[in-house]
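Ticket opened by: R.M.
Priority: normal
Category: complex prediction / small molecule

The reporter submitted a protein together with zinc ion and asked that the result be attached to this ticket for the collaborator who will pick it up next week. Submitted input follows.
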Amino acid sequence: MYLSDYHFHTLCSSDSPAPLLQQAEAAIAAGVREICVTDHWNLLDQQGNRLPTVYDWEPSLAQWRELRNRWPGQLELRLGVEVGNGVLDPAAVDASLTIPELDFVIGSLHSQSAAAGGRGIYTVARECAEKKDGTAILDDYMDMLEELVQTSGWDVLGHVIYPLRYIPPEYELDLHPWWDRLAQVFRAVIAQGRGIELNTSAGATVEQWRDVLELYRDLGGEVLTLGSDAHRPQHMAAAFPQALELIRETGFRWLCVYRQRTPLFCKVG
Ligand SMILES: [Zn+2]
Ligand SMILES: [Zn+2]
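Result attached by the on-call engineer:
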C-alpha cells in the first residue's frame, strides 16, 4: 500500500536534532512512500510565555526545497506545520498559513489554557500529585478542544489523546468521562470535511487510540492521517504495522495525504 508518515519533526523544531535528510532516509528505509514535515509552531512555551505570532517559514522552506525532488518515484516530500495552541490567536495563525508551498496543517494543544496558566501539558502532567490533578488537566484540555474546532487554521486535529501521554498511568484516566463532548468535537470536524490523526508517538501509543478511532468512525469520520511524531530518525514510521492493523480493525478503508490543504484518499491495503 501507499504508506505515509504525516507527522514528524526536524531540527526546525526546538525539540528535535534531526536534519530532514536523515528523517527522509529513515522513512525510505521503513517503506514509506510519502512524508509531510510538520515542524512545531507553538504559540506558548512550556512556562506559559507567549511566542511569536508570525511563523518564520524560511528555515523550513529552505531544507524542504533542497530535498523535495531528491527521490523521484521513491519518496514524495510535502511541507506542513504543527500549530500548537493556535486558539490563542486564530487570526494570526491564518495569516501565517498563506504560503503556496503549504500542503498540510496539524492543529494541536500542547499547553494549558491561558485561564489555567498556559504552561505545557507535558510539564504540568508530571507534577500531578493525585488523580484529580489529572482530571483537571483533561477538563481544561476539552474546553480548548471545543474552542479549537471552531477555528480555521488546521486540517487535522493533532494527537487528541495528548494529555494521556503524560498524566501518570496509575490514575487510569482516559477520555470516557468527556465522551459526549469528544463526540461533539468529532461531529464538527466531520461536518467541516476535516479530520483527525492516529499519532503513534514514536511507537508509544497505538492501543490507546482504539476507542477514539471507533467513536470517530461510528460518527462517520473518514478523514484520517497517520503519523509517528518522530523527533529522531529511529522513530520514523514507528509502530506503523500495529497502527495499520488498528486502522483496519476500526473500519477505516483510507488514509489521507494532502495537497494544498485538501485531502487525497489512499486505500489501506
Ligand atoms: Zn504535538
Ligand atoms: Zn509533533
